[in-house]
Design a protein that fits this description.
Blueprint: H1 5-12, E1 14-17, E2 22-26, E3 29-33, H2 38-47, E4 57-60, H3 80-96, E5 99-101, H4 111-117, E6 126-129, E7 143-146, H5 149-158, E8 160-164, E9 167-174, H6 183-194, E10 202-207, H7 209-212, H8 216-226, E11 233-235, H9 240-249, H10 255-266, E12 278-283, E13 290-292, E14 300-302, H11 314-327, E15 342-345, H12 353-363, E16 373-376, H13 381-389, H14 392-399, E17 402-403, E18 424-427, E19 442-445, H15 448-457, H16 463-469
Parallel strand pairs: 3-4, 3-6, 4-5, 6-7, 9-10, 9-12, 10-11, 15-16, 15-18, 16-17, 18-19
Antiparallel strand pairs: 1-2, 2-8, 13-14
């Protein structure tokens, strides 16, 4: 029987089998942030253990850092608890010889944006991080997944992880995405169809013509949000698009070594006779621009649809009623035309250069609605610099958007970019949980294009109508 891509990567990184369900899994790269690492370093200190492979670690300050538009060298964290957290992280990285993209580093950014753009993510790798959206790296054919703090300590000490092997799921998408729809709409559509726990216990491999047509950065959005369906990982087999992206960003391979690596990458695909435990099939032609209405990413509808009626199932009815009450909405209501107070474009889901190019095309020569506060937070210093060179930043500023420094920002209320209670936000982030962007704040997930259009209109609108109007 053939093997899936997931099985091949796990087998090639298995140091030894622990039991029938668990292996000791070797990690090629371990990415850290200031939020999930302090206790791990404290555990090492208590045991008197060194970091086994400092050169296979990377640190980024991203969760708590403010994004005020000041020069990079003047960036400071003013919230005491956050500053203490970042300072401890800096000291630990310096002590153990780990490269850190600190507060004033010009290449600082969101960890899942920085690592691929520096060429650190390659097909066939296993990449770990104390953050659930490490699944992003599956876009480049690498197995990435989030781990807990105790596991961070174990990886630092051993460069391995005791890992429970997942089941295999294939999601095949036929057709092609229509004008006005993106990979963000596709993943929201899929999550709404299979549910927030629909891929729990699985690693998902995406296949099909619609996936093949996506750019590398669009695939990152898709794999990033697959964890919102409960998946333990997401993968897309390397192809010409993958190889081009990696080769454009890689720093330490050239010539014959790079040629040999590319040949290895070509073997990283599921065998024709590989068996998946579960397969889902969708048609990209069925995907419209999607927007969430509730407090879970699976509570989403097409912009031309209506919030579904309450279920007869007691649990589902309770969850939907609670979400609608929190969001100030009703079953049967349309989201098209719903007024918004704030627009946030950023996060590890949608803060790459392609995302910023897309919104610039929409807003160029137009203005943000008078009562709306609109923010754009690029995913890294490199993205920010490139956007400024291409004139994207100038177009956004002229339109009335705030042009910020890189960081996680308003994706989560761990810094000073926080919504006020009751404010309604059109957001390109990955989670719309209660209080995620601030206590009492109401978040609607959507694509960058949809968020940009909402900023201009002052309400949620169908981007397809805006495109047709233009």
């Amino acid at each position: 029987m053939g093997q899936t891509l997931y099985q091949k990567i796990v087998r090639s990184h298995t140091v030894f089998e622990v039991d029938a369900q668990h292996v000791a899994l070797y990690a090629d790269l371990h990415v850290m942030n200031e939020y999930t690492s302090p206790q791990a370093f404290a555990g090492l200190a208590e045991k008197g253990l060194p970091v086994r492979c400092p050169e296979k670690q990377m640190g980024v300050v991203d969760h708590v850092i403010p994004t005020h538009p000041v020069p990079v060298g003047q960036r400071t964290i003013v919230i005491d608890a956050a500053a203490h957290q970042a300072a401890n992280f800096t000291r630990n990285c310096e002590k153990h010889g780990i490269h850190l993209f600190d507060v004033t580093d010009p290449e600082q950014g969101i960890e899942h944006v920085v690592a691929p753009e520096l060429g650190l993510i390659r097909p066939g790798m296993v990449v770990l991080c104390g953050d659930s959206h490490t699944t992003t790296y599956g876009a480049l054919g690498a197995l990435g997944f989030g781990i807990g703090t105790s596991e961070v300590e174990h990886v630092l000490a051993t460069q391995t992880l005791v890992y429970r092997v997942a089941r295999d799921m294939r999601i095949h998408v036929d057709g092609s995405l229509a004008l006005g729809t993106t990979s963000k709409d596709l993943v929201l559509y899929i999550i709404a169809r299979i549910g927030a726990q629909g891929a729990r216990g699985f690693v998902v491999e995406y296949t099909g013509p619609a996936i093949d047509a996506l750019s590398a950065e669009a695939r990152m959005t898709l794999c990033n949000m697959t964890v919102e369906a409960g998946a333990r990982g997401a993968l897309i087999a390397p192809d010409a698009t993958t190889r081009q992206y990696v080769c454009d960003h890689i720093r330490d391979l050239a010539g014959e070594a790079l040629d040999a690596a590319q040949k290895r990458w070509l073997t990283l695909r599921s065998d024709d006779d590989a068996v998946f435990d579960v397969t889902h099939r969708f048609d990209a032609a069925d995907v419209a621009p999607f927007v969430t209405w509730g407090t879970s990413p699976d509570q989403a509808i097409a912009i031309n649809g209506q919030i579904p009626p309450l279920s007869t199932d007691d649990t589902e009815r309770h969850n939907a009623s609670k979400a609608l009450n929190y969001m100030g909405l009703d079953a049967g209501q349309s989201l098209d035309g719903l007024p918004i107070d704030h627009v946030f474009i950023g996060s590890c889901t949608n803060a790459r250069i392609e995302d910023l190019r897309a919104i610039a095309e929409i807003v160029r020569g137009r203005k943000v609605a008078p009562r709306v506060r609109a923010m754009v937070v690029p995913g890294s210093g490199r993205v920010r610099d490139q956007a400024e060179r291409e004139g994207i930043a100038a177009a956004l500023i002229d339109a009335g958007f705030e042009w910020r420094q890189p960081g996680c920002s308003m994706c989560l209320a761990m810094n000073d970019d926080i919504l006020k209670p009751g404010e309604r936000c059109a957001s390109t982030t990955n989670r719309n949980f209660e209080g995620r962007q601030g206590r009492g704040a109401r978040t609607h997930l959507m694509s960058p294009a949809m968020a940009a259009a909402a900023a201009l209109a002052g309400r949620i609108v169908d981007i397809r109508k805006e495109i047709a109007h233009d």
